C-alpha cells in the first residue's frame, strides 16, 4: 500500500515511519490491504479540523480521535487481485484517515500510554475501517475488530490497549 502523509499541527516526531510500520503490520493481519496498488492518505491534524470534518461528514459537532473515509466497498477490496494487469496500472484509492493531535494526546495521557503507541493504534484502527471492518455494527464485529487490532499492535511490540492500566 502506498501512503500519502500530511502532517499539520503535530509535534516533531517519526510520524511517517510510524504510519508506514503500522500500515505494513496491518496488512499482515488484514491481508486485503497488502495490495501494492492501494493508496491511502493520512492527515495528522488538530482538533479543530477534526471537529469540522466530524460535523461535515458525521453530523457530530465535537472533535474525535480518528476519522476514516473509505473509498472502496469491502466486497470490491477483497476481490482486487494485486497481480492483475501490468505494474503501470493506475493506483486504487483506498480512502483517507485523519487523526487529531489534541484528542490523541489527551487519550494517551488518560490511558497512561505513550503518544506514539496510541497514535499507532489509531492508525491501525483507521486502516481497518478503510478495509471495511466496523465495530459499531454488532458486539461480534467489535470483538473481531478489536482482536485484529491487538494482533497488529503485537507485531509492532505495542501492548494490548484494551487491557492496559489507565492513569488515575
Automatic annotation (TrEMBL):
Cofactor binding note from Swiss-Prot or TrEMBL: Binds 1 zinc ion.
EC number(s) recorded for this UniProt protein: 3.1.-.-
Cofactor: Zn(2+)
Domain of life assignment: Bacteria
Chain residues that bind Zn(2+): 125, 129, 135
Cell location: Cytoplasm
Record carries keyword Transmembrane: no
Top EC group: hydrolase
Main localization (coarse): cytoplasm
Keyword annotations from UniProtKB, A to Z: Cytoplasm, Endonuclease, Hydrolase, Metal-binding, Nuclease, Ribosome biogenesis, rRNA processing, Zinc
Protein family (similarity comment): Belongs to the endoribonuclease YbeY family.
HAMAP family in the cross-refs: Endoribonucl_YbeY (MF_00009)
NCBIfam families cross-referenced by the UniProt entry: rRNA maturation RNase YbeY
Function comment: Single strand-specific metallo-endoribonuclease involved in late-stage 70S ribosome quality control and in maturation of the 3' terminus of the 16S rRNA.
Protein name: Endoribonuclease YbeY
Native species: Aurantiacibacter sediminis
